[in-house]
Design brief:
433 residues, alpha+beta, FAD/NAD(P)-binding domain, seven-stranded mixed sheet, seven-stranded antiparallel sheet, 12 helices, disordered N terminus
C-alpha cells in the first residue's frame, strides 16, 4: 500500500549452525523464554547432520569422568562451565525432555536406544514445537553490528539474503569433517569482528606413516600401548586397540595422542608396545619357551603371541624380507636374535608423516580464545550481544563424549544467557521500538 511504511523484520535470536551446540542453544533459549522469535541457520541441506555420525551413529552424549583435565586448548578456564553443567545436569535436561540415557562400563553415556537420530529428532522437535524456525542451505557470509542490532548477510540457493537480529549465537563448529559442514568461514567472520583465534589443526585423528611400512599391516588390529614422541622430547601415550590402515595407524588410543603432533612442524615417531603387560625380560623368557617347539617353522614363532599379520611383519623387520615364511625351526634363533625380536615387539616404531587431515579428524583443535569470552554467559567480550558455543571455541576434548558434553554445556549456557538478556529493561525497550 502506498504511503504505508513497512516494519523491518527482526529476529530476537539467530543461531548460526544447526549442530549439537546450535540446536541445544536454540532449544534452551525457547524453553527459557517461550514465544521468543528464534531462527537457526544451517549451510547444509539438513540440520544435525554431523550429530548423526557421532559415536558411530550411537551419539556418545557425555562421559561420567568429565573434568578440565580431559580437555585441551584454554582448558584451565573451563571449570565454571563444567561445574554448572555437570554430567548429571545434562542427563537431567535430556530426561526432562523425554530422552533417557544409559552408561557403559567405561563411563560413556549414550541415549538409551543407542541411536543418534533420537537426539537429533528430539532437539528439532523441541525447537519447532516452541515456534523456532530452522533454515537450511543458508551460508552466512558476514555479521555486522549497528547499534543494538546485528545484520547477517548470507546466501541461500544462489540468492543474497539479509537477516536482522537482536542477539546472535555462533555455534558453527570447527574445520573437521568438511563433508558434514566443517568450514573456516565462520572463523574468518569472527576474526574480522575482532576475535583472537588460535590456529586450527586436526585432533582425534589417525596418523600417517611410510607406505612401505603401512601396506603389509593393512587391516590388522591388536591391543597395545602407543607413544607419540616428538624430536624435542615431548611425548604422549595411550593404551587400547591399535588399528593398522593402508596409510598408517588409527584407533582411539592413536586419536587420543594425535593432538601432540599439532600442525606437523616437528618430526615425530609413533612407538607401539604390543605387549605392555610384559617386561622385556618376561617377553624374552616367553620367546625362549616358544623357541623350544620344534614342530613349527621359524616364521611362526610369534603366531600364538601376536596377531599373525603383525607377528610376521615383526620378524621381517628384524631379519629381512621373506623371514615370515622362513624354513627351519624356532629353536634356530640365537639368544641375540630373540632379544632383537623382543625389542621390536616393545618398540614397534613408525615415522609420522602427517595426519589423516580434516576429512578424518573427529574434532578441531584451535578456535576463539576463551580470554575473550565471558564464561558466565558465553557472551563475547569483544561484541556485546554476540555469544559463542561449541567447537568454534579454543577447546577440544578427549575421545569418549567429552566434546559433545562441551557442545551441550556451552550451547545451553549461551541460549539461556541470550534469552535472559532479552528480558532486561534495555532489551524490552528495544523490542517496543
Amino acid at each position: 500500500m502506498n504511503g504505508v511504511k513497512r516494519m523491518k523484520q527482526i529476529w530476537d535470536l539467530v543461531v548460526v549452525g544447526a549442530g549439537a551446540s546450535g540446536l541445544m542453544a536454540a532449544a534452551a533459549a525457547l524453553e527459557y523464554t517461550p514465544g521468543l522469535r528464534v531462527l537457526v541457520l544451517e549451510k547444509e541441506k539438513k540440520p544435525g547432520k554431523r550429530l548423526l555420525a557421532t559415536g558411530n551413529g550411537r551419539c556418545n552424549l557425555s562421559n561420567r569422568r568429565i573434568s578440565p583435565q580431559r580437555y585441551h586448548g584454554d582448558a584451565d578456564k573451563i571449570f565454571p562451565v563444567l561445574e554448572r553443567f555437570s554430567v548429571k545436569a545434562i542427563e537431567k535436561r535430556f530426561a526432562s525432555w523425554g530422552l533417557p540415557c544409559r552408561e557403559d562400563d567405561e563411563g560413556r553415556i549414550y541415549p538409551y536406544n543407542l541411536q543418534a537420530s533420537a537426539v537429533q529428532e528430539l532437539l528439532l522437535h523441541r525447537i519447532q514445537r516452541a515456534g523456532g524456525e530452522i533454515r537450511c542451505c543458508f551460508s552466512v557470509l558476514s555479521c555486522q553490528k549497528a547499534g543494538s542490532e546485528f545484520c547477517l548477510q548470507g546466501e541461500m540457493q544462489g540468492a543474497e539474503e539479509k537477516i536482522d537480529a537482536r542477539r546472535v549465537i555462533f555455534a558453527c563448529g570447527g574445520l573437521s569433517y568438511p563433508s558434514l559442514g566443517g568450514s573456516e568461514r565462520s572463523w574468518g567472520i569472527l576474526g574480522k569482528m575482532g576475535h583472537d583465534i588460535a590456529k586450527g589443526f586436526p585432533a582425534l585423528v589417525s596418523l600417517k606413516t611410510e607406505k612401505k611400512l603401512a601396506a603389509p599391516l593393512k587391516g590388522a588390529r591388536c591391543k597395545g600401548r602407543v607413544t607419540l614422541r616428538l624430536e624435542n622430547g615431548k611425548e604422549a601415550s595411550s593404551q587400547g586397540e591399535i588399528q593398522f590402515t593402508e596409510t598408517g595407524l588409527s584407533g582411539i588410543c592413536v586419536f587420543e595422542i594425535s593432538r601432540l603432533y599439532g600442525d606437523g612442524k616437528s618430526k615425530a615417531q609413533l612407538i607401539c608396545d604390543l605387549m605392555p603387560e610384559y617386561t622385556f625380560g618376561d617377553l624374552l623368557h616367553l620367546l625362549r619357551i616358544r623357541g623350544k617347539d620344534s614342530s613349527l617353522p621359524a616364521g611362526s614363532l610369534l603366531d600364538s603371541i601376536l596377531q599373525k599379520q603383525v607377528g610376521r611383519e615383526i620378524l621381517r623387520r628384524c631379519f629381512g624380507k621373506g623371514m615370515g615364511e622362513k624354513d627351519g625351526f624356532p629353536g634356530e634363533f640365537t639368544e641375540k636374535q630373540l632379544a632383537a625380536i623382543a625389542r621390536e615387539i616393545k618398540n614397534f616404531s613408525f615415522p609420522v608423516l602427517g595426519t589423516g587431515g580434516w576429512d578424518a579428524a573427529q574434532v578441531t583443535a584451535g578456535g576463539v580464545r576463551l580470554k575473550q569470552i565471558n564464561l558466565e554467559t558465553m557472551e563475547s567480550k569483544i561484541c556485546k550481544g554476540l555469544y559463542l558455543a561449541g567447537e568454534v571455541l579454543n577447546i577440544d576434548g578427549d575421545c569418549g563424549g567429552f566434546n559433545l558434553h562441551w557442545a551441550w554445556s556451552t550451547g545451553c549456557l549461551a541460549g539461556i544467557s541470550a534469552a535472559r538478556s532479552l528480558k532486561s529493561p534495555s532489551a524490552l525497550k528495544t523490542k517496543k521500538n
